[in-house]
């Protein structure tokens, strides 16, 4: 996500599912390669949201541009990028996303804008036959997710959801080891994320740290945005990625910072075949690499997904550490459109994650930790929760929630069956 406010990117008036008609350019059905004689390489790309995290996408588009796969033809921002921000490249800029897609003839749009804008912007692109890389989380509610996913499918455009960790080659490798019985019977999956964010992080944009803004859902919590990859990756390793794979969700949402949303939380997801517990905080004493831990009767696997690094511990096999490669999601989208490569993160494969987002959205507001449970680090201007690093690791290791681990500040505040 990037730093603009909700109003910074403007979809054309009236764009939405009801506007998905047969006019405008049509493309190959989702799941099938597009006609390369029509698209051609390099594919013209528009980036919506080029600041904040959008800078990463801007650099990545330049990388793929150097490989001859794409060319940046437009940037959608309320305040145009400077020549320095564009590294001297001259591209069309506009705050009107739909008009920019029309004027540039874009084949692909990368959407990295505030969470509440995702659905409308995605449907704007879909109506115009433009394929999508949509940043995570794809929507702030399950209803908005369905509106987006159904609209994209109806428009027959391809949509990739930006969970970059799911492009790691470690994910299918771990899944193969699990399905082949390499860990024995899987008893559960844990996830841990202990990060730090200073107080300015919550002032970077009007929606930051909000559950709602101007009556619209945002759900910018630790599990749904900054550490959403832990949840999505754990679900992927479990093989439970679709909405119907989730049978029960229990949440514990807390906050040390003076915000509306949660910054220290855990969730237990019961799936049709397993249980997953993920614990995360933005108030770590010593921030570290997030990871997913697969527990089995014959061993376990630790996956540090940002590093594509895997540690396999199996009875009778000792320790094996492996570093894997990674497929970039925009590059995968281009290869899907032009050569029929399998799309890595289609909307339906994020349905289970969106069920978690919905449970967090519907939960009571996060509980404010008492003043004695946190302290401020003056030099870093951030709040830390003493001992939280250990609780995060213990939750992944034991599959227990904070309250079950005896954290004095943790109280269960929600049980959701869907």
Give a brief description:
With 418 residues, the chain is of the alpha/beta class. The protein is built from ten helices and 20 strands.
Question: How would you characterize the overall build of this protein?
Answer:
- 25% of the residues lie in helices and 24% in strands.
- The protein is an alpha/beta fold.
- The protein folds into two domains: 157 residues, NAD(P)-binding Rossmann-like Domain (Rossmann fold), CATH 3.40.50.720; 227 residues, 2-Layer Sandwich (Dihydrodipicolinate Reductase, domain 2), CATH 3.30.360.
- Strands 7, 10, 11, 12, 13, 14, 15, 16, 17 and 20 form a ten-stranded mixed beta sheet that branches. The protein has a six-stranded parallel beta sheet with strand order 3-2-1-4-5-6, sandwiched between helices. Strands 8-9 form a two-stranded antiparallel sheet.
- The chain is globular.
- The N terminus is likely disordered.
CATH topology of the largest domain: Dihydrodipicolinate Reductase, domain 2
Mind describing the biggest β-sheet?
10 strands, mixed
Q: Helix/strand/pairing class, anyone?
A: alpha/beta
Q: First CA to last CA: what distance? A: 26 Å
Low-confidence stretches: 1-38
Mean pLDDT: 91
CATH architecture of the largest domain: 2-Layer Sandwich
Give helix and strand order, one letter per element, not per position: HEHEEHEHEHEHEEEHEEEEEEEHHEEEHE
Q: What is the global morphology?
A: globular
**Helicity level:** 10-25%
Tally of DSSP helical segments: 10
User: Quick one: how many beta strands?
Assistant: 20
Domain module count: 2
User: What is the gyration radius calculated from CA atoms?
Assistant: 21 Å
Percent strand: 15-25%
CATH superfamily assignment of the largest domain? Dihydrodipicolinate Reductase, domain 2
The CATH class of the largest domain is Alpha Beta
């Amino acid at each position: 996500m990037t730093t603009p406010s909700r109003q910074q990117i403007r979809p054309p008036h009236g764009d939405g599912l009801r506007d998905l008609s047969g006019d405008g350019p049509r493309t190959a059905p989702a799941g099938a390669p597009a006609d390369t004689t029509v698209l051609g390489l390099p594919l013209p790309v528009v980036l919506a949201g080029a600041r904040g995290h959008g800078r990463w996408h801007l650099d990545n588009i330049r990388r793929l541009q150097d490989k001859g796969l794409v060319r940046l033809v437009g940037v959608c921002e309320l305040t145009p990028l400077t020549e320095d921000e564009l590294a001297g490249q001259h591209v069309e800029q506009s705050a009107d996303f739909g008009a920019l897609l029309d004027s540039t003839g874009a084949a692909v749009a990368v959407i990295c804008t505030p969470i509440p804008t995702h659905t409308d912007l995605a449907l704007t692109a879909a109506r115009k036959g433009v394929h999508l890389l949509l940043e995570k989380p794809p929507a702030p509610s399950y209803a908005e997710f369905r509106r987006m996913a159904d609209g994209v499918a109806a428009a027959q455009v391809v949509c990739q959801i930006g969970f970059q960790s799911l492009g790691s080659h470690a994910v299918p490798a771990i899944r193969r080891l699990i399905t082949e019985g390499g860990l024995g019977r899987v008893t559960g999956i844990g996830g841990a994320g202990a990060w730090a964010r200073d107080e300015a992080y919550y002032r970077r944009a009007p929606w930051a740290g909000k559950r709602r803004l101007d009556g619209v859902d945002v759900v910018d919590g630790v599990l749904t945005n900054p550490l959403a990859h832990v949840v999505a990756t754990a679900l992927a390793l479990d093989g439970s990625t679709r909405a119907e794979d989730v049978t029960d969700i229990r949440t514990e949402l807390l906050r040390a910072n003076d915000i509306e949303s949660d910054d220290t939380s855990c969730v237990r997801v019961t799936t049709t075949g397993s249980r997953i517990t993920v614990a995360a905080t933005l108030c770590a004493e010593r921030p570290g690499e997030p990871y997913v831990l697969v527990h089995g009767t014959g061993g376990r696997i630790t996956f540090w997904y940002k590093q594509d690094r895997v540690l396999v511990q199996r009875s009778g096999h000792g320790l094996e550490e492996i570093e894997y490669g990674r497929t970039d999601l925009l590059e995968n989208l281009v290869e899907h459109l032009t050569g029929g490569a399998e799309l890595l993160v289609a909307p339906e494969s994020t349905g289970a994650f969106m069920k978690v987002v919905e449970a967090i959205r519907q939960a009571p507001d996060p509980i404010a930790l008492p003043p004695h449970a946190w302290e401020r680090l003056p030099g870093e201007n951030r709040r830390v929760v003493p001992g939280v690093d250990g609780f995060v690791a213990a939750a992944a290791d034991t599959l227990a929630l904070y309250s079950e681990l005896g954290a004095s500040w943790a109280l269960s505040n929600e049980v959701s069956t869907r």
